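At this stage, I wrote out one protein's amino acid sequence and its backbone structure tokens, and that material follows here:
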Amino acid sequence: MAEPRAPARPLSPHMQIYRWPITMLMSILHRITGGALYVGTVLLAAWLLCAAAGPESFAWAQWFAGTPIGLLILFGYTLALMHHMLGGIRHFVWDLGYGLGPVIRDRWAYANVIGSVALTVLIWIVGISISLTAG
């Protein structure tokens, strides 16, 4: 007698096989940038506390912000802020019932990435040019 065979069940696609949709990647990045904003806001509060503590503390905070690691943190905070803001606007438009089609949904996601990078670079260009003309 032949033994009954179990029905073939589909296997869950592995991360190397499954292609992530851009909207799924944007959802993950939105959560990551939200977490980064928590950390960056704590650093911003520490900077304000140094400003309130006196000139020596503020000078140290300003020195750290001017180091390469400090500038990298500030750039990352700006990028996270712009990405999270544009993602929030995208979700607001979706909540209004617009942009839910598959093509426009993907275009909005790509625009979120391009826009966040462009706004971050623009903010830093303006900030650096103002600091160079003021100093």
